[in-house]
Amino acid sequence: MRLLVIEDERDLAATLRRGLSAEGYTVDVAHDGDEGLWMARTGDYVAIILDLMLPTLNGYRVCAHLRRDQITTPILVLTAKGGDWDQTEALDTGADDYLAKPFSYPVLLARLRALLRRPHAMEPITLTVGDLVLHLTARTCHRAGVMIPLTPREFALAEVLARRPGEPVSKGEILHQAWPDDPDNTNLVEVRISALRRKVDQPFGRRSLQTVRGTGYRLVDDRALGG
């Protein structure tokens, strides 16, 4: 499971990364609000640990931006600020829980486990294949942080492939999963694949949407291949 820690105190961020990694999590770290917001929007995280007093963009605004974008990743606010008003503002802007510094590490782990047990933490909020990210709630697509406008049918096609990264998916499967109301129109798949390539690959010089001869199509992380 992948976590994002947004914390400008580098020693604390490093300590959290080591401790959470030892618990079996994969941990990404951002040290300011703008970087953290970009990573939260484009990454696939089960939870976010968010400091409030951040450079460039404070934690309240990071939280508010994410909730405005309909990104529902659980957020645990971790801050040196105290008092009921600070806690209230953090929760009102969309945080799920609040822990004041200095904190007990076992308590942080327990709070994190409690967040991950909630129903909204069980379903993926985003699908990520390389630097291509689909936000399932907002129904938006980004590549390398750049928003790519997709039609509903194009998004449905991309979602089917992104749920099985690297695996060939037949035209029949795509039709059944993406457009069950039109199960026999295989030409529709070819047309939408071409349209999707023009949007997610060609402008970026990429080849992530691949044809598998005799089988169908697959979506891969092509960065290691040089695009």
Q: How would you describe this protein?
A:
Helices cover 39% and strands 21% of the residues. The chain is built from eight helices and twelve strands. The chain is elongated and about 60 Å long. The longest helix has 15 residues, at 186-200. It folds into two domains: 2-121, Rossmann fold; 126-225, Arc Repressor Mutant, subunit A (Orthogonal Bundle), CATH 1.10.10.10. The protein has 227 residues and is of the alpha/beta class. The strands form three sheets. It has a five-stranded parallel β-sheet with strand order 2-1-3-4-5, with helices on both faces. Strands 6-7-8-9 form a four-stranded antiparallel β-sheet, covered by helices on one side. The two termini are 27 Å apart. The model has no long low-confidence stretch (mean pLDDT 86).
